[in-house]
Amino acid sequence: MRKKEERQSRILNLISENSIQTQEELVETLEKSGFKVTQATISRDIRELKLTKITTSADTQKYIALKNNSNSPINPSIQNNISTKVIRVFKAGFLTIDVAHNILVIKTLPGMGQAVASAIDTFNYTDIVGTIAGDDTIFCAIKDISKATFIVDQFNKILKT
């Protein structure tokens, strides 16, 4: 995987797990994760990932990935159009998927489990109860066994785009 995709994947993971308020804070957090970056690079990444700031309940701001309305195959029921970068992270890290009753076991490239799980969470499927990610494996709990195949089909549609 290219360095840029790895960095952007890590950015998505960091903003989903932390309340990052400034570009400087994002630079520091990335550097602690092993990525040497400049403010200009982060500014470009923020624009490409379509990140924006929102006000939190604690009256602070934090970065999030934008979701726009359109007819995306990701979640037809609420018609989310996820950033193409989020989809790229999902596709870049995804390797295989197996169904075990109402649990999907997703294998990813080493180090990509959390980023791919974050992308899955961003897809916002109502049938997904939650995801748990390790280094290269994700457990994705589905509400009902009958919906597991539907979610697998949706993931396959995304992978084919």
Low-confidence segments, given as residue ranges, are 68-81
**What is the gyration radius calculated from CA atoms?**
16 Å
- N-to-C order of helices and strands: HHHEEEEHEEHEEH
Distance between the termini: 19 Å
Backbone structural class: alpha+beta
Helix content range: 40-55%
Number of helices: 6
By DSSP, the count of extended strands is 8
Structural shape: globular
Strand order, biggest sheet?
5-6-8-7
**What value does the average pLDDT take?**
84
User: How large is the share of residues in beta strands?
Assistant: 25-35%
User: Largest sheet at a glance?
Assistant: 4 strands, antiparallel
Q: How would you summarize this macromolecular structure in one to three sentences?
A:
This protein is an alpha+beta fold and 161 residues long. It has helices spanning 3-17, 23-32, 39-48, 84-93, 113-123, 145-160; strands at residues 51-55, 61-65, 67-69, 80-82, 94-100, 103-108, 128-133, 137-142.
